[in-house]
Amino acid sequence: MIGNQSFPASLLDLPAVVESYKTYDDSFLVKTADIGQMVMVREEADPAPEGVEYKHGLTPPMRDARRRRFRREPDLSAELVHRVEQDLIRIMQGVSVSILLICVICENTLPYCNGIK
User: What tens digit of pLDDT does each residue of 36-78 get?
Assistant: First the structure.
């Protein structure tokens, strides 16, 4: 509330963590915080933001940052994850698991594992 006017506000997550710094003598910077959320105050007539994450950052270069700068999560099936997890548990327990099987699973699902032989 400012004076007699009240404004709606929303707490939003930023697409990336922002570091804040301060200085005492204009030559040395001291890191003061990592900022991951912001409070957006708006006029009554303005629409509320969609979702809990603000898809644009604080500055113009961070416009639509989540889509442009960050990699999508790979599409993995639950069965594949379970099978690989069981193989890893067997390997940690000392049971011999065919390395060929793991390589075939990697090559079929993850494009960056093609070099494994």
Answer: 898 888 888 888 888 888 877 788 888 887 777 777 777 888 8
Helices 78-92 and 99-109, axial angle in degrees (round to 10): 150
Q: What is the structure's pLDDT at 22?
A: 95
CA distance 115 to 117: 6
Q: Which residues of 33-65 are buried (b: 16+ CB within 10 A; e: fewer)?
A: eeeeeeeeeeeeeeeeeeeeebbebeeeebeeb
Place of tokens 């069965």: 79
Q: Where are the domains of the chain?
A: 9-69, 78-113
With 0-12 / 13-18 / 19 or more C-beta atoms within 10 angstroms meaning exposed / middle / buried, residue 23 is: exposed
